[in-house]
From TrEMBL:
PANTHER family: SPORE GERMINATION PROTEIN A2. InterPro entries: Spore_GerAB. It is found in: Membrane. Signal peptide: none annotated. It is a multi-pass membrane protein. Keywords: Germination, Membrane, Transmembrane, Transmembrane helix, Transport. This is Spore gernimation protein. GO terms for biological process: spore germination. It holds the Pfam family Spore_permease. Belongs to the amino acid-polyamine-organocation (APC) superfamily. Spore germination protein (SGP) (TC 2.A.3.9) family.
Length: 373
């Protein structure tokens, strides 16, 4: 990987991946499980998620000059490494297809109901292909440029919602016990944090490998804090019942804004923030998918893969589910797929590294003793 990004850009990429589509579609899931205690689920998920990021960072620092695909082949051997890489490629492809479908479902149900979803998917996949052609460095710089706008819009969004906050929506606390809270924390851990495994493919591009851990943790915490804040606002403003029934609680929050009967229905603020974070996240996934395919297949270059990948993404996004309700049924099993390619894969790589290191030390010690004899 010849591209180079700064530690700050890597941290912001982690923040974008953590926020991404989670800002719009995640809040209703833990609220459905834990009701008014979903903010506690979010806190638990944030703590667990930071441990996941620590694990990902540890795995990424084993070989900071290698991508995840290259490190898997280095540690697990050629054939097992290729098999793991192929499964990781399939995971990336499924994720991009799901992100594209979320964009299409949101725009056709909330903003442009008369527009065919196929047209939205084609345009979105085309933009992702263009971003991949420009490279990871360009994507990182774009995210860095727009992040200040995102913070300003987020601050305005929170400020305008303060008059509608009802603290009674948080009561009663812990009335359903601990099980619903733990159930709600699963998705809060998976969607913002476990999907950060994608950045293990971008670590070789970071200019200062020694700063990877700090930036990884900082960016992930920033993104998790934003998601936690959105979940808390959804409960405080909408109430747990309304937030559970809504597919897009944060978009419903934007409709509540009414300041002096002048600033009203500022859904465009939320739509801009979500489309921005979702696009940067999808662009990172698309570029990483392109690189992973090239390295797994042993191609000399990853160029010219953008168009066929874009076409495949469009086709898959249309057949992934029959409707929006069916699509959101994936929330029951998707976190476990995220766990497989983040927690389990990282543990496997760390274990393989420890075994190889122990075997190397044993071989060195044995050679030394033999020489003395």
């Amino acid at each position: 990987m010849n591209e180079r990004i700064s530690g700050r850009q890597f941290a912001l990429m982690a923040a974008y991946v953590a926020i991404g589509d989670s800002m719009l579609v995640l809040p209703s899931i833990p609220i459905n499980d834990a009701q008014q205690n979903a903010w506690i689920s979010a806190l638990v998920g944030l703590a667990a998620g930071m441990m996941v990021v620590w694990l990902l960072s540890a795995a990424g620092r084993l070989y900071p000059h290698l991508t995840l695909v290259q490190a898997a082949e280095q540690l697990l051997g050629k054939w097992i490494g290729k098999a793991v890489s192929a499964l990781f490629v399939a995971y990336l492809f499924l994720s991009i297809g799901a992100h594209t479908r979320e964009i299409g479902d949101f725009l056709t149900t909330q903003m442009m109901p008369e527009t065919p979803i196929q047209a939205i998917h084609i345009m979105y996949a085309g933009i992702l292909a263009m971003a991949a052609r420009l490279g990871l460095e360009t994507i990182a710089r774009t995210g860095e440029f727009f992040f200040s706008f995102f913070i300003v819009f987020l601050a305005a969004f929170i400020l305008f919602l303060i008059p509608d906050i009802k603290l009674n929506n948080l009561l009663p606390v812990l009335d359903g016990g601990i099980k619903p809270i733990l159930r709600g924390s699963i998705t809060m851990t998976a969607y913002p944090f476990m999907e950060l495994a994608v950045l293990l493919m971008a670590i070789p591009a970071v200019r200062k490998p020694q700063a990877i851990h700090a930036n990884f943790m900082r960016g992930a915490f920033m993104g998790g804090a934003v998601v936690l804040l959105i979940i808390l606002l959804s409960i405080l403003v909408l109430g747990p019942d309304y937030a559970t029934r809504s597919i897009y609680p944060s978009y419903a929050l934007a409709k509540k804004i009414n300041v002096g009967r002048f600033f009203q229905r500022l859904e465009v603020i939320l739509a801009f923030m979500w489309l921005l974070t979702s696009f940067i996240k999808s662009a990172i996934f698309f570029k990483v998918l392109q690189t992973a395919i090239a390295q797994t297949a042993g191609l000399r270059t990853e160029k010219r893969l953008e168009l066929p990948l874009g076409m495949l993404v469009v086709c898959f996004s249309l057949i992934i589910s029959s409707n929006i309700i069916d699509f959101h049924e994936a929330d029951h099993y998707w976190p476990y797929m995220d766990m497989t390619f983040s927690v389990i894969l990282s543990l496997v790589l760390l274990a393989a590294y420890a075994i190889r290191r122990a075997a190397r030390r044993k071989g060195t010690t044995g050679s030394g003793n033999k020489g003395k004899d």
